[in-house]
Amino acid sequence: MSESTATIRTRKFLTNRLLNRKQMVVDVLHPGRATVPKSEIREKLSKMYKTTADVVFCFGFRTAFGGGKTTGFALVYDTLDYAKKIEPKYRLARHGLIEIKKTARKQMKERKNRMKKARGTAKAKLAAAKKKVNGDIVLVDIMKTSQDSWRILGINNKFYLFVILNDLWKGAG
């Protein structure tokens, strides 16, 4: 073997018909070479199983002490649709199939503290609505507390707490 080659062998092969995929343990032999990139492993596995590289997901690779051999796990899906449906979001993001939106730390904390104020099924009823006020997007969370009162929790991310009677809300008063 020359230094540029890597041999890929699969073992513990299983066809998982419920998840529409083939799953296997992958052994990569790469003597005299650093760890083989997952992209290269994906390409070689896609050629072995006569499919495209976008439906091959490799993960969990560990190099043996002393180098030369790396072992990991691979999943080869029947179609890209099944892969998008079954694979975890972080693995899809690694492949560039989806983009995970980062939520600001402050927004996560504010949401957590808003959820603390509600109890039980009321947490599920907290609904976020966006309104435009003077060209600015204002976040308003409205929660019905009882038949005759409403709470508005959060305007412009400053927590003002208003209790408005139902008839005032409708514009009767």
From TrEMBL:
Gene Ontology cellular component list: ribonucleoprotein complex; ribosome
A Pfam family this chain is assigned to: Ribosomal_S24e
GO molecular-function terms, A-Z: structural constituent of ribosome
Keywords recorded for this protein, A-Z: Ribonucleoprotein, Ribosomal protein
Similarity comment: family membership: Belongs to the eukaryotic ribosomal protein eS24 family.
Keyword Repressor set for record: no
GO biological process: translation
Protein name: 40S ribosomal protein S24
Organism: Meganyctiphanes norvegica (Northern krill)
PROSITE patterns membership: RIBOSOMAL_S24E (PS00529)
Superkingdom, natural source: Eukaryota
Keyword field contains Ribosomal protein: yes
UniProt xrefs under PANTHER family: 40S RIBOSOMAL PROTEIN S24
